[in-house]
Amino acid sequence: MTAPPQNPKPHFPLSHPGRRQFLRVSAASFAAAGLWPSTVAAQDMPPLKDYPRAWLTENEWVFVLAAVARLIPSDGEGPGAIEARVPVFIDRELAGDFGAATDWYMEGPHQPDAPPELGWQSPLSPADIYRAAIPLFDEWCVSRHGTAFADLDAAMQDEALTALEGGDVPLPPELRDFFDILLTNTKEGYFSDPIHGGNHGMAAWVHIGFPGARAHYREWVGRHNIPYPLGPVSISGERA
Amino acid sequence: MKTVLRLFTALALVAVLFIAGLIWIPVSRTPASEALPADWAPEPGAGEYAMRAGDCMACHTAEGGADFAGGRAIHSPLGTIYTANITPDPETGIGGWTLDQFRAALVDGLSADGSHLYPAMPYENYRLLTEGDIRALHTYFMEEVQPVRIDVPEPDLPFPFNQRWGIRALNWLILTHDSGFNGIMGDKVLDRGQYLVEGPGHCAACHSPRTAYMGQDGITADQPAFLTGGYIDGQQAPALRGPGSVIRDWPTPELTAFLATGRNFAATANGEMGLVVEHSLQYLTDADIIAMARFLKALDGQPHDPPEMTVPRGPLARPAAQADARGEATARMLTESSPDMPLGARVFMDNCAQCHFVTGRGSPEIFPALQDNSLVLSDEITPLVSIILWGATVEGTAQRPMPLVMQGYEARLSDDDIAALTSFLREAWGNDAAPVSPEAVRDIRDDGPPEARQDDGALMD
User: Which partner for B106 in B126, B246, B312, B458 could form a disulfide, CB atoms 3.0-4.6 Å apart?
Assistant: First the structure.
């Protein structure tokens, strides 16, 4: 197991890492394994709680698990973000070029409070924004509800995320895009090819009827209003 | 007991004398097949052209090595040998070889010192070269090729195949035909085609079967087994005449296109044939390619009207073929895209159909047809599985410059996937060949890609 990097500046000691969330996640993982069978042996994948993280710390991991479970919940139509292993995607994405903003222009001057249409103005990389924003958001949850985000019940988590989205959680301007990138990364992890860690078993593709990386529909161009019946294939050749 | 011993001794003595004779009695060189005037000299460029027609470069040049400096590994069932340096370097090449010595290499398989060349050198076929071409080649290699000083590795053959005198006995069996060319087609153009196919082109070296002692079974056009199909380095060289002829259904212009560019309406030239197109055939004149194609069609008893040129010039748009009657059921099944389709069909849809199409007929000059594809149907499954695992490239030629590249699926497909896929390909669209097992695929995968097995060993001085 890769040791996650330590949070360099813990803003405050977190309350106990959400144990209930882990239990929920594990149960959902088992459910998913039965619901969306694929050529990927679900049992070969470590449960999310044992996943060897590349970037996120324990506390960050607990938060991401809880947050994505509300953004794409497991009790809606189709698989949730947890069954699709979206947190794995986010961890790998943050550990990679996106997280470090490797190929972005990140030299100054930065003006974090510039209007959003002026693009990325934060001096922080996306991974650093996760690192800095999660403790502040948890701190806000503690001050408002007496417990960190992961330990809130679903309704209060939704309320907290809504506040975060609406800018009602006081975050410094360089962190103001936190909710946006969290939501975007969650969707990416849900719908991207499983080779990147999310969309486990291509469950999201099966759900929306997207046939994946087949790139061959020549005979179907003229067949209107007939459902395309064949399940998806992934870049690595998985079939569902 | 004594009698037996005496008999044994006598036999051993005869054998020793026989072998001694094989080793020490000097061989004689075959004289020129025709007398040319004393002041005869080749036309400018004739030697280089004969070299192209004879495809000397493909074998006598190592991957990344200097032209004609040898060192390319030739794999035979008996072991590996390395092609000779045929640049005019006097120490490591053929510098200073007289015309008689040079001719003997081509028609008798003899080196300048009288030792025997390994029969990977197609002297059975070059024996049919005209004296004019031999002299043109001699002039070319002595005067136009740059000398390169380079030693090639010794052959890697087990005893007794590393004893070159053994080849002398072999030559008694395989070199029974006269030297020089004998046209039998009764037509000037067809005779030219016959000459290029039989002699310099040495097509029979791969496309004729082999006899029990590994000679070519069918060296000249009058022999019944000539070009009825053979094997080369784990690859099947399909029959070019008779019932299994792969070119039977090719109109003459498609055959000329294949020879000149390595691609036509249904096929692409892979493996050894790809090298032949790349190094030899693309350099031949339209007239010669057309003559070869017409000869091959005539030999197979088919119409052979001459096309105006080998391939149409300029931009070309040819629609992909529709499924024919034999392929219709498979095409329909694939088009329906039912999740219940067999695994092999599913793997085809997920990985292959984009280029080879549900019709199995590919696209002219770009994606080869898989229906009736000799490589798909061959009892040698290694080339097919190898191409699926590691891909293939058809090199560009002057007239069709775009290389055609198929990617490999080594990482994407398991042994079970590939076994199911190849088994499907071999029975789809009316194809009829035996299935392939996952174990066979695993063995081919374990052997590694063909390049890894190529160990060119030339060392520069």
Answer: B126
Average pLDDT for residues B437-442, to the nearest whole number?
A: 98
Residue A116 is predicted with a pLDDT of 83
- Measured in angstroms, the CA of A215 and the nearest CA of chain B are apart by 6
> Cβ A216–B417 below 8 Å, yes or no?
no
Which DSSP category does A56 fall into? -
Q: Residue A31 has what pLDDT?
A: 38
3-class DSSP state for residue B393?
strand
Matching residue, tokens 């000779």: B84
- pLDDT at position B278 over 90: yes
User: Exposure of B317 by Cβ count < 10 A (0-12 exposed, 13-18 middle, 19+ buried)?
Assistant: exposed
Cα angle A34, A36, A42 (rounded to 5 degrees) comes to 65
Mind telling me how many Å the CA of A221 is from chain B's nearest CA? 11
| Nearest alpha carbon to residue A83 among A30, A40, A151, A150 | A30
Numbers of helices and strands, H then E, in chain A: 8, 0
Our CA-based measurement puts residue B338 at a distance from the nearest CA of chain A, in whole angstroms, of 6
If asked whether residues B158 and B271 sit together in one domain, one would say no
The number of distinct structural domains making up chain B is 3
Q: Are residues B341 and B295 in the same domain?
A: no
In terms of domains, do B234 and B163 share one? no
Q: Do both B254 and B364 map to the same domain?
A: no
What number is the average pLDDT over the span A9-31? 40
List the 158-217 stretch of A: residues with Cβ below 8 A of B: 214-216
Separation CA B381–CA B435 (nearest Å): 10
| A233–B350 CB contact, under 8 Å | yes
Residue B219's contacts (CB-CB under 8 Å, 6 or more residues apart) are: B124, B125, B128, B177, B198, B204, B208, B226
Instruction: State which residues form the domain around B431.
Output: 328-452
Name the domain boundary from B142, B174, B206.
B174
| Token pair listed for B282 | 């693309």
Pairing of strands B404-406, B79-82: unpaired
* B160 pLDDT above the threshold of 50: yes
**What are A225's two structure tokens?**
């209003």
- Assess whether pLDDT exceeds 70 at residue A12: no
Put simply, the answer to whether B349 touches A239 (Cβ < 8 Å) is no
Segment B88-124, tens digit of pLDDT = 999 999 999 999 999 999 999 999 998 899 888 999 9
Q: Rounded to whole angstroms, how far apart are CA atoms B297 and B251?
A: 9
Asked if B201 contacts B236 with a C-beta cutoff of 8 angstroms, the reply is no
The pLDDT of B328-352, averaged and rounded, is 96
Q: Do B336 and A229 touch (CB under 8 A)?
A: yes
* pLDDT in the model for residue A104: 94
**ipTM of this complex prediction, to 2 decimal places:** 0.76
Measured distance CA(B123)–CA(B127) in Å, rounded: 6
Give the residue-averaged pLDDT of A100-112.
93
- Give me the pLDDT at residue A19, please: 40
Distance CA A132, CA A116 (A): 20
Residue B203 exposed, middle or buried by CB count within 10 Å (0-12, 13-18, 19+):
buried
Contact A203, A78 (CB under 8 A): yes
